[in-house]
Amino acid sequence: MSDLDYAHTKAENPPMFKKLFGASTLQQNALEVWGHKQKAKEMREELRSHISLFYGPSAWDEIVHTEVQMRKEQKQAVYAAEEQREKIINIVVGTLITIAAGVLMATIIYYIGVGQGKW
């Protein structure tokens, strides 16, 4: 369901290049995603009815609780990965800025020395 929700969101808010070059494809994709979401909802309701009938309503509540916990853990993992990616980008950018500043300082010092006739 989460993947279908994400696909639905992407279909509703596509990137600019898809808006410009693929209007009919976007409508088709949005309709497909909507159809898949409806089918998934029907299947989930059927599963809920089946589990509640054979195992009782508390079993479905337990499944929903487990699902919520798994979703939270997945979000935390995704957020951790995103934070790690941002840290790496910050380190790379910081390193590049430091190197550029060092090269600039060395160049300035060199030209000052050449200008004073020390080199």
Task: Give an overview in words.
- The chain has 119 residues and is mainly alpha-helical.
- It has a domain at 2-82.
- The chain is built from four helices and no strands.
- The protein has helices at residues 2-12, 16-21, 23-55, 57-115.
- α1 runs antiparallel to α3 (23-55) and α3 (23-55) crosses α4.
- The chain is elongated, with a radius of gyration of 28 Å.
- The chain starts with a helix and ends with a helix.
Mean pLDDT: 84
Please report the total strand number as a whole number: 0
SS summary, helix count: 4
Order of helices and strands: HHHH
| Spans of at least 5 consecutive residues with low confidence | none
Q: Could you give a short account of the major beta sheet? A: none
Could you say which structural class the secondary elements and strand pairing correspond to? mainly alpha
The gist of it:
The protein is 92% helix and 0% strand. The chain is mostly helical and 119 residues long.
Properties at a glance:
mainly alpha, elongated, 119 residues, 4 helices
Secondary structure: elements and pairs:
Layout lengths: L1 H11 L3 H6 L1 H33 L1 H59 L4
